[in-house]
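Possible regression after last week's pipeline update?

I re-ran a chain I had predicted before the update to compare outputs. Posting the input and the new output here so someone can diff against the archived version. Not blocking, just want to make sure nothing changed silently.
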Amino acid sequence: MNIISLLKSLPGSVAQGLLWGVLAIGVYITYKVLDYSDMTVDGSMATGAAVCVMLVTGGMNVYLALVIATLAGMAAGLITSLIHTVLGIPAILSGILTQIGLYSINMRILGKSNQAISVDKYDLIVSLRHIPAAIIVGAVFCLAIIAILYWFFGTEVGQSIRATGNNPNMARAQGINTDFNKVLGLMLSNGLVGLAGALYAQYQGSADVNMGRGAIVIGLAAIIMSEVIFGKLFNNFALKLFAVVLGSILYFAIIALVLQLGMSTTDLKLFSAIVVALFLAVPYLKAKFHPNAHKGGKENA
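New output (post-update):
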């Protein structure tokens, strides 16, 4: 392993981790707050990227293109939520159906399987050629999103979404419209995913119809790693969201490490799945092999 090459690759890993951290926060809303297994992510990320790239290449201001890409992601979340709440299709299947449909929609938006966008020709917010600037932009977006979500989930509407995820039956008994909260939560989540796709498309210089494939695994990896590593340190909601971003950065740092060790890029999906499985297993294995410590922790709590 070349230590110098690894150190040189770390700033790029941080930049990617911050941009994907926006997606991870979106996944956190459905997976942890709403307790909803949403597979729309793999499609809505590519939708946000496709919309942003096509609008910018068409002459639109890049910031306005980001807003519209976010709205496109929200539209994808709306479709999934309506399939689930109106048609009664299970959560995971509703996301898969939307994800499959989005493939064709994304192809229509792009006109082909991929579309390049150059920082030399367009005034982009982030670019792979300017990693220090990309780190700053990614950090600003993550911090702003965390601050907004911290405020939002402290409001009555935000609290009702959290109540829906914690105990939907009790929430309904309190007069909360859980279906509406699922719709709102999925729209918010996939809006952030669409925004992440738009930012990442600018960073890598292209939008691809398959760029979101496996995105849910990366989002889950960031969340699970953040919980296992930082779970006992960060109890505040805002700090939990911040930990998710740190988990995303750590994930890409690990990817850079294994690439330096000689792993083929074609094996990264397998590696991601193994990482998620291992971190998901940690709480169970701790409880199984250290039952007294787990019990003591509960009593102390």
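Follow-up from reviewer: compared with the archived run. The domain at 3-300 is CATH 1.10.3470 (ABC transporter involved in vitamin B12 uptake, BtuC). Marking as no regression found.
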